[in-house]
Write a structure and sequence with these properties.
OB fold (Dihydrolipoamide Acetyltransferase, E2P), 3 domains, alpha/beta, 13 helices
């Protein structure tokens, strides 16, 4: 029986899908991550925007074009948010953000049924949503990914306590909870030598705790001994202080890339978003990072068209991102999410206003990215794949690099002569 696991959304979803693939392979199933013909499709959904939920629903139909008789299992944030949106679509089993391992038992039950000659359709019932539970209060430490590529995602945390007014995720993933240090260390210790970089992921990595206190720096000290490059996913401004940065500066293998979520450069908008900093405080955090890591890649998320955002507010954001000189912008138009505070309190802006601001800020982001590339004279690139004549990988400060030469996946190549190219930089061996 062939099973295709199709993943939408964030790096946490990717980690959890990889873990399901590992478990399925251990149980003797053939697996794929491609949208192709299979006997079973497992769709790991996303709900961060309305568009993400729409794509999650559409994935069912896209999968069925390859096999109309295939069984479909749906899990993740979109099914946690509104499980009934997937009923009536021929879905065999629906679960949410927790208890994902239970889908393995359901697939094994399906395999036994198929072996007995019964039709898959017999499993489809009005109780398809029986796998949707409330998020747990403790970290579910029951899924582990087997990593074979040069970069490995390792999940260290789940859930979120921040309740930004635009965000539905805390309601779907539950409260913040951290994985034990020993469990994380054990997973990294088992990574094969082919894995040269570890990316720590979670819904709110900044809130990783040890015994109820901030513990991300302490965790990184433990992981540094394995000699693999260490990279952090999205961080919050509140984490950045002298002690944390001094800890990072003392590591041998830390990659100086900080993805600090900004969302807006206007204080009044930040307040209505329930973001607990001002633009000036955020700028001070960036300044502090550059004190320890002058060429750090500092990337960020920006939401344009938040319901109360005026043209003047937007211009403040434009001016702020220029002042900070981010290395890359990830820009999203505001998406109204039912159940959030912003959806209840504020009227949405016209789509044309949001799309116009998105395009204008994207032009700014393109210039900032090219400027940052030119500032880099040397670096070390971890090669991940070959596309045409170019090897492709990332520098320590997260510049996507294109390199020609006789290399292999997993090589870390010293490079020079960074020049803007496509979505990153073309470089030369040093």
């Amino acid at each position: 029986m062939k099973i295709a696991i199709l993943t939408l959304g964030c790096k946490v979803n990717k980690y959890e899908s990889d873990a399901l693939i590992f478990e399925l392979n251990q149980r003797g199933f053939e697996t794929s991550e491609k949208l192709e013909k299979a006997d079973v499709y497992v769709i790991n959904t996303c709900a961060v925007t309305n568009e993400a939920e729409k794509k999650s629903r559409q994935m069912i139909e896209r999968a069925r074009r390859f096999n109309q008789n295939a069984a479909v299992f749906v899990l993740g944030c979109a099914s946690q948010n509104r499980p009934l949106q997937f009923e009536g679509r021929g879905v065999n089993y629906i679960s949410g953000t927790s208890g994902k391992k239970k889908v393995l038992q359901e697939i094994e039950n399906l395999a036994r049924t198929a072996g007995s000659g019964k039709e898959n359709a017999a499993l489809i019932s009005a109780e398809a949503t029986k796998g949707v539970f409330d998020p747990p209060k403790e970290y579910e430490d029951d899924l582990f990914s087997a990593q074979t590529l040069s970069r490995a995602f390792v999940k260290i945390q789940d859930g979120c306590n921040r309740f930004c007014t635009y965000c539905i995720i805390p309601y779907l993933r539950g409260r913040s909870r951290s994985r034990s240090v020993q469990s994380i260390v054990d997973e990294v210790a088992k990574l094969p030598e082919t894995v040269k970089e570890v990316v720590l992921v979670g819904i709110d990595v900044s809130d990783f705790q040890i015994d109820g206190k901030k513990g991300l720096g302490q965790l990184l000290v433990q992981l540094d001994k394995f000699g693999k490059r260490l990279r952090l996913s999205s961080l919050e401004d509140s984490l950045i202080d002298e002690n944390f940065l001094q800890t990072l500066a003392g590591l041998k293998n830390f990659c100086p890339h900080f993805h600090l979520s900004l969302q807006s450069g206007c204080d009044s908008v930040l307040k209505k978003m329930n973001r607990h900093y001002t633009a000036a405080q955020f700028a001070e955090s960036v300044k502090l990072i550059r004190k320890y890591f002058p060429l750090a890649g500092i990337t960020t998320d920006v939401i344009v068209g938040f319901p109360t955002e005026t043209e003047e507010d937007f211009e403040k954001t434009v001016d702020f991102v220029k002042e900070v000189k981010f290395s890359q912008l990830h820009i999203f138009p505001y998406s109204k999410r039912d159940g959030t505070a912003a959806a209840k309190l504020y009227a949405d802006l016209p789509g044309k206003i949001k799309s116009d601001r998105l395009a204008r800020l994207e032009n700014v982001g393109k210039t900032l990215k090219e400027d940052f590339v030119r500032k880099n004279q040397t670096g070390n690139v971890l090669l991940e794949e070959k596309k045409g004549k170019f090897w492709v990988g990332y520098s320590e400060n997260y510049i996507k690099c294109f390199l020609e030469g006789d290399f292999h996946v997993g090589d870390i190549v010293p490079v020079k002569n960074f020049q803007p190219f496509q979505s990153g930089a073309v470089v030369q061996p040093k």
